[in-house]
Specification:
- The chain has three domains: about 100 residues, Rossmann fold, CATH 3.40.50; about 70 residues, ATP-grasp fold, A domain (Dna Ligase, domain 1, 2-Layer Sandwich); about 240 residues, D-amino Acid Aminotransferase, Chain A, domain 1 (2-Layer Sandwich), CATH 3.30.470.20.
- α4 runs antiparallel to α5.
- With about 450 residues, it is of the alpha+beta class.
- The chain has 15 helices and 20 strands.
- The mean pLDDT is about 95.
- The longest helix is centred in the middle third of the chain and has 18 residues.
- The chain binds adenosine-5'-diphosphate (ADP).
- The site of adenosine-5'-diphosphate has 20 residues, from β8, β12 and β13.
Length: about 450
């Protein structure tokens, strides 16, 4: 087992990984920018290295600095967290060349799944159902029109290198197609440095359902049930739950089984998430994330597994020491993403936290790196913490969530806590009756 791991991230996820390491007796190295000198992940690490100025491209994305930090501290492995370098195949490759273990899948698998067109083709060949759409890239108006006619309007134009819900264009009529295609290509080129786009059927009322898998790279793979992440704003997840209120056990076993078999055949290594849109009883693959997800704690709550420790063991060469039959999914968990944002306009609200008192008690988990007196820098993502609650069943979980939100004190900045309190007053939320457009509609009406 590794003696020392460098965590190439910041905020709550850096702390999350540190906790897993500490419980395994592994020393941790934090990296940080000059904006994060007072961050909790720096304070709690065994060692820390400043790797650059606030701008992420010069610090958390600065590969030469991170490599130097590994060499100085003698770290044998790097955990990338999520975001930043977590799905950067060339980073994984460079670490391999330096004999440092990347805690994640192979560079080849990251690369393949990072290209959404190649990913769709690969998983389709492995027997996973995909959203109807173009076979490959769409480059000209004539092909766009032909594919749109075949699959039927509305259609969605998506960036092959897309991520974070950006670079998507919905097209409802033929006469909008040509403009949407050039806009999508220009936006994709500007945002991702790659203007390749493809087309999918735009599903009207789907839910976003994703399957968590763990695989050992040697043909061992299990699924850990699903998460329902349909509550989204601008294609970004806001609230996640496990299990989905929309699926029954038979559907779960079926789709989970297909995915686990596919990942075993693929010899996938590490944790990963296969994302689907689910409509009228059918699943349609949209993408695979080859990393730990923000919402992984809800799966941990219902399985009792520590997914970060699983990642570390697998990266160290372990095979899975359990089979699908050993996995039991118990109870219900919900995660709310607490962002430093105005809860109505969603404008970022960085600044000093004047008072901080998180909720506690049975079934309540907080993953966050903030504290009273902490100053949230304006340079990064607005996620400052996650409230995760567990209950024996969904109703207990909802009541626990409500009382936890009411207990939560964060003063000095604005947060999205009031949004979640409002959501809990909505019958559709209480009944689990929502799709991927529900939140946007709710926000535009209120
Ligand atoms: P990204 O990598 O940018 O997150 P995804 O392909 O995962 O992109 O899609 C993000 C979100 O966009 C989905 O959760 C869903 O809300 C919406 N979306 C993606 N594809 C479709 C589709 N074919 N029809 C309707 N909505 C879609």
């Amino acid at each position: 087992m590794f003696d020392k791991i460098l965590i190439a991230n910041r905020g709550e996820i850096a702390l999350r990984v540190q906790r897993a390491c500490r419980e395994m007796g592994i020393a941790t190295v934090a990296i940080h920018s000059t904006a994060d000198e007072d961050a909790m992940h720096v304070r709690l690490a065994d060692e820390s290295v400043c790797i650059g100025p606030p701008r992420a491209t010069e610090s958390y994305l600065n590969v030469p600095s991170i490599l130097a930090a590994c060499e100085i501290t003698g770290a044998e492995a790097v955990h990338p967290g999520y975001g930043f370098l977590s799905e950067n195949a060339s980073f994984a490759e460079i670490l391999r060349e330096h004999d440092i273990t990347f805690i994640g899948p192979t560079p080849e698998h990251i690369q393949l799944m990072g290209d959404k067109i190649a990913a769709k083709q690969t998983v389709s060949d492995l027997g996973i159902p995909v959203v109807p759409g173009s076979e490959g890239a769409i480059t000209d108006d004539a092909t766009a029109e032909r594919v749109a006619n075949e699959i039927g309007y509305p259609v969605l134009i998506k960036a092959a290198s897309g991520g974070g819900g950006r670079g998507m264009q919905v097209v409802r009529h033929k006469n909008e197609l040509s403009t949407a295609l050039s806009t999508a290509r220009a936006e994709a080129g500007a945002a991702f440095g790659d203007d390749v786009v493809y087309m999918e059927k735009f599903l009207d009322k789907p839910r976003h359902i994703e399957i968590q898998i763990v695989a050992d790279g040697k043909g061992g793979a299990v699924h850990l049930g699903e998460r329902d992440c349909s509550l989204q704003r601008r294609h970004q997840k806001v609230w996640e739950e496990a299990l989905s209120p929309a699926l029954n056990q038979e559907q779960r076993d079926r789709v989970g089984g297909i995915v686990a078999n596919a990942m075993a055949d693929f010899k996938y290594l590490g944790v990963g998430t296969i994302e689907f849109l689910y409509e009228n009883g059918e699943f349609f693959f949209i993408e695979m994330n080859t990393r730990l997800q923000v919402e992984h704690p809800v799966t941990e709550m219902i399985t009792g597994l520590d997914l970060v420790q699983e990642q570390i063991r697998i990266a160290d060469g372990a095979t899975l020491n359990y089979t699908q039959d050993d996995i039991s999914l118990q109870g219900h968990a919900i995660e709310c993403r607490i962002n430093a944002e105005n809860p109505n306009t969603f404008a970022p609200s960085p600044g000093r936290i004047e008072a901080y008192h998180p909720p506690g008690g049975l079934g309540v988990r907080i993953d966050s790196g903030v504290y009273t007196g902490y100053r949230i820098p304006p340079n990064y993502d607005s996620l400052i913490g996650k409230l995760i609650v567990f209950g024996k069943h969904r109703n207990e979980c909802l009541m626990r969530l409500k009382r936890s939100l009411d207990e939560f004190v964060i003063e000095g900045i604005e947060t999205t806590i009031p949004l979640f309190q409002r959501l809990l007053g909505e019958p559709d939320i209480m009944n689990g009756d929502y799709d991927i457009h529900w939140l946007e509609e709710f926000l535009s009406e209120s």
